[in-house]
Amino acid sequence: MTGSDLPIPSNGDSPPADVTGVIERVISDVPAPRVHASDDPGAAADQVARNAARNAAMLSGSLALPPGPIGMLTVLPDLYLIWKIQRQMVADIFALHGRTAELTATHMLYCLFRHMASHVLRDVVVRAGERAIVRQLSSTALSNVLGSLGMTVAQRVVGTSASRWVPLAGAAAVGAYAYWDTLQVAKTARRVLASAPEPAFSFADSASASGARR
Length: 214
Known about the structure:
mainly alpha, two-stranded antiparallel ribbon, 9 helices
């Protein structure tokens, strides 16, 4: 990744608009998984989540090391890179369960931000008995959700950015939060997979299996 790929605060935009733009960039591209379906997806997903959490903590803590105004300039790049790590983790967790084809930008949005903005994303899921299924949003609905989410995340960033003025201790706190945050994303992804219906067994699948037995 080059420096030009990283988001930087815009003088003309408000912080919520900057954050909304970063979120939109992150969810607009669902990455290809780096793993394959596993016979034990639960254990494999645990390992993927721990690795991603460690990577997120090290990255976020490193970016938070510069104190004062310089450290504040790393906030948006930090968010972007952490969310990219988490985005890849979600793609890998879906793949471990053999569910890659189901993963959409709306799923990614829900998995990445459900734990920090449940009030914004409550309408993204629909209830079907005991299941909570992520529904696909229209472009208008998605824009509204992104705007509200950008506002919520920006408020959190402002509330926690004071730690970047404290060398070392602030970086440790930022890294610890990134670790915890990444594990929450993994929990949401696994909850979505547990709630969503398994892929339907189609007539074509049945006919193919029947032919194979003959």
